[in-house]
Amino acid sequence: MTGYRHTRAIMASAVxxxxxxxxxxxxxPSAAALLALLAGVAAFAVMPAGDSARAQPxxxxxxxxxxxESRLLAAFEEPLLVVRxxxxxxxxxxxxxxxxxxxxxxxVRLAIRHPAAAEHLAGDDSAAVRTELVGxxxxxxxxxxxxxPLPDGSRLVRLADQSQARAAEQMRVDFVANASHELRTxxxxxxxxxxTLQEDVDAETRARFITIMSGxxxxxxDLLDDLMSLSRIEAERFAAPRDTVDLLPLIDEVKDVVKPLxxxxxxxxxxxxxxxxxxxxxxxxxxxxxxxxxxLKYGRAGTPIRIRLExxxxxxxxxxxxxxxxxxxxxxxxxxxxxxxxxxxxxxxxVGGTGLGxxxxxxxxxxxxxxxxxxxxVGKGTRVSVTLPRALS
Length: 393
Description:
The chain is of the alpha+beta class. About 50% of the residues lie in helices and about 20% in strands. The chain has 13 helices and twelve strands.
């Protein structure tokens, strides 16, 4: 009979642990998690005290109270605390790393020293509450504190790092500001020349102004086209392409497109054999156009542009676009795929471009489940490598 009760205790502990796991995963206890916790607590509660006392010491693997919960919380990377009567009874390693190794057993208001947190930590809320905190650990690091009640009267405190969410929001704000700036400049030029043309000007001046206005209008059109293209690619990022695309004829088409603009030789080196990949033909063509256009813009006059296909294994193929230009300093390379990022803003506007080319390339590569690498040496040139999955035979 004792063995039966002990087995029931182990099963109840397992059910309770599963309930805690569900509560942690959801950020606040769900109905299923609460039922599981209640089942675990009830199973322990119905055991006679004497039987429990006799059964537990008899087993060599008996665990101390809270040991299962501590192990469970330790598996989570987010800081987690279990609080009972305002005391921290369990703190996982992430919480100790953030708040201090001494916090177990201390008042939770001393463990999380923050004015915005004190009211919710000291209160007895019957529902989960969320509070934004700044200043735990790093001074500017944002956190969200979620305090959720547990059936036994304890409370689960979860600290969710909001750094990535804030960074994404800042990127969105910067993107809108940059796009507005890029559109405002040519629009201001157009308006200025239109006002001038309303006055009496000679034919030569009129023709010169119209040429400039046409160039600015084309610049706005290219920017809007790239913005719409980037939006479409991002919208499809979870839909992996499934068509078979032969890169060799596609590269020939790209060469024909850039030939009137190049004035330089574009050399194709196929070291990969079969050059078929799985992808979206239109997007891969756009990717190659952007890479070759960049190489032509920033490579030295008179030097060739090389498009090299290399075998990257049984399932992968690498396309490299190589120029012999001035190269890019190492500190700029990680930021080249950011929207509107320019190493030299003056030169970029002089040679043309919207500042979105490599960002579009990055998102196309991500959608194709590929890899993008950029290597550059100042004074020697730049090599952009795109690795894509080969088409299934």
